[in-house]
Design brief:
11 helices; alpha/beta; about 30% helix
Length: about 325
Amino acid sequence: MDEPLLRIDDLAIFIDGPDGGRQPIVADMALTLAAGETLGIVGESGSGKSLLSLAVMGLLPAAVHATGRILLEGRDLLAMGDDALCSVRGRRIGMIFQEPLTALNPAMTVGDQIAEGMVIQQGLSWRAARQEAIVLLDRVRMPDAARLSKTYPHALSGGQRQRVGIAIALAMKPALMIADEPTTALDVTVQAEVLDILDDLRRDAGMALILVSHDLGVIARMCARTLVLYAGRRLEEGATRDVLTKPLNPYTRGLLRAVPRRQPEGGRLQTIPGTVPSFAARPAGCCFSDRCPDRIDACHADEPPWTRATPGRGVRCIRAHGERAP
C-alpha cells in the first residue's frame, strides 16, 4: 500500500497555562490524506479546525505546542527546525487563509506578494517572478490581471483578494493545499466562482485539498471525505456522502438539522442548544455530553474511544459500544 501524502498520528495540541503547566486544546487527532484526495473538516467555531490547519503548517503561536506526528511525504513536520519548515511551506504545502485582507501585506502590490515566494524559494528574478504572477492571476480568473497585479489589497474586492490568496498559495505548486474558510463573507455568486477555481486547479495540478468550512453545502460539493471536529476531538469521519446522509454521531446530526432551509411561516431554524465549551471547561466524559439530546448517564463517565464503525467510517460515541438508554 502506498504511503499517504499526509499522515497525522496521535496529535495533541497544548497551551501554556498560568501555573506553568500545559492545558490540552486538541487531543487524539489522527487522519490520512492521499495525493489528489479532498478532505473536508467541519465543526462549530472553537472546534479546533483552524488550529489543526496551523499545526500542519507549523504556524502555531509561541505559547501553543504540539506532540505526536505530522508526516508529509514521510517527513515529520513536528521534528523539523525552522529552516527545514520554511523549505516545506509553500513548496509542498500551500495555505489559503480565512481573511485575505488581513493575510495580505497592505504595503506591497498583490503582484509582488505573489512573486516574492518565487524569488526567495525558486531563485527567479523579480522581473520573471512578476510575469509569472500575472499568469497566476489570470489562472485564478482575475480580470485584467496585468493591471491589477500592480494594485494594493485595499483597492480590491473581497472576491478579488481571495483570488490573490489562492494565487500566492499556488505559486510554488504545492502537493497539499489547505483552504481555511476560503469563502467566508463572500456573496453566493462569488463563493461559487472561488470554489470552481479551487476545484479546477486541484484537478489540473493533482493537489490534495483540505477544506475547512462551517458550510456543509460547500463540503458536500468539494470533498470526498469529511472529518467532524468538536471541542478539539474528532467525533466522526467517513465518505462525505455517508457522513451527511447517514450520520453516526448526534453532533453531526445536530449540524445537519441546523442547516438553514426554507421554513413555513412562523417556523424557526433548528439549533444545537448551548455553545462549544472552552478547553478549560470541557465536561467530564464525552465532550458533547452536556449538549447532546441522546445522552445517558454513561456519557458523563469516561470519554468514548475512537472506533472504526465500518471500513472507512470512524466515530466517537458511546452508542458505538453497545450502550443503550434504559
